[in-house]
Amino acid sequence: MNPKFDELKNRLMEIYDLTRAGAVLEWDQETMMPPRGGQARAEQLATLARLSHEKFTSPEIARLLDGLRSYEASLLYDSDEASLIRVARRDYEKMSPVPAELTAEMTRTAAIAREAWVEARKQSDFKMFLPHLEKIIVLKHRYIDCFHPTGNVYDILLDDYERDMKTTEVKQIFEALKAELVPLIAAINSRADMVDNRCLYGHFPADKQRELCLDIVTRFGFNTDSWRLDPTVHPFTTSFAIDDIRITTHYYEDFISAAIFGCMHECGHGLYDNGSDPVLERTLLCGGASLAWHESQSRLWENLVGRNHAFWKYFYPKLQAAFPNQFKNVEMETFYRAINKVQPSLIRMEADEATYGLHIILRFELEQEILQGKLRLQDLPEAWNAKMKAYLGVDVPDDAHGVLQDTHWAWGSFGYFPTYSLGNIIGAQLWEKILTDIPDLYTQFEHGEFSVLREWLCGHLYKYGRKFTPQELRQRILGGPIDVGPFIRSLKHKYNEIYGT
Description:
Layout: H1 3-31, H2 38-56, H3 59-67, H4 69-74, H5 80-95, H6 100-123, H7 126-144, H8 154-161, H9 167-189, H10 206-220, E1 227-231, E2 237-241, E3 244-249, H11 257-274, H12 291-305, H13 309-322, H14 324-327, H15 332-339, H16 356-371, H17 380-392, H18 418-437, H19 441-446, H20 451-460, H21 470-478, H22 485-499
Parallel strand pairs: 1-3
Antiparallel strand pairs: 2-3
Helix pairs in contact: 1-2, 1-3, 1-5, 2-6, 6-7, 9-22, 10-11, 10-13, 11-12, 12-18, 16-17, 18-22
């Protein structure tokens, strides 16, 4: 083994441990921390962020990366060693122009803003959150200024979540998506009364919801030795190690779908992280290749598995047993149609598969307008409400159901939202390949069997972690670029069966 490589790997492991310690504190803030702990937690997170940034951008790391070029060239491209050097060099190049103190300040501000967002959402008052968002945007511009100018300032933030993706590419994909979604949604809306979803509303005790959710995700791959499921305001997933996966959900006792499909969504993220090759543990290669690939898994398990007719042939009797008063007289077909009802709605996380993309396009456009200085932050609620009316025909009653519904901007995650729709598209591309390779997949679902699907995904995607770029993975697994065709075909097939469109 090369001594320089050993030194690099050991240094990177220390940095990885620091970032995972920060993730533990963030998870605790979202799930367990008492409200008055926010200020101290912000300082703790800022300290860890500064230390890990300083260690990663140190002259020692630069020296090692430079000294390992010939060693890297002697290795197979796919090897773990070459991949670690390659990914570390790319991460170093992205992080080194950014001052450590700026990283710390962005982390501190986001942690404080998150607490302000929770209270503002509770009060449905955007003005309470506005000063924090203003500071976040100032810091985002300072961050953008650390890099050479690009054709679009948004490119730099998008690259943080989807490596090498350009805003122009996303626009082209979203235009193709919108061109298909708008007429499809219009055709379905003309037959809206064909599906009744009233069975999804009623009284559903949170403890019973949790039992059902655990039953579902355990079938997917969740196990109590390596995973946790906890409640939170806005569901998320984080992992501290390959065998330490934390997923969360939110229980609404008057609406059954949110927690169930939220758990499936977050379990998809967890399965991706849990599926990394164990040899990648405590390295930069552990985890997903990008956020679009990660969201391809959350959306795949939530929608392509969880909203599938075959899935509910197995799980619907369990749902009826958990909530007999609500579902004993409801046919499975009625329930299946209800969970797939297309209906423009206020909340992104509860949106159906067809209208969901419009929620993402709305956020994508607003983020660009904010960062380009075309939209004043104080005007954001009005702009949000106008786009909701224009794209979805929905009137927003208050800030909590509008501009304050997502936590992403509180955490400073500008550039993240597009990856949800990109993930939907990639997931559908994967699904066509999976059905070719596993022709009896739906029969397996009918018997509550999901291990073959999980193993296929581990073998083709999960085990590689970050070894390959998003583009390389698309070429290796899908054989080409992002294509909206499979996603649209999937929607049209499903909704033709339900609505006769």
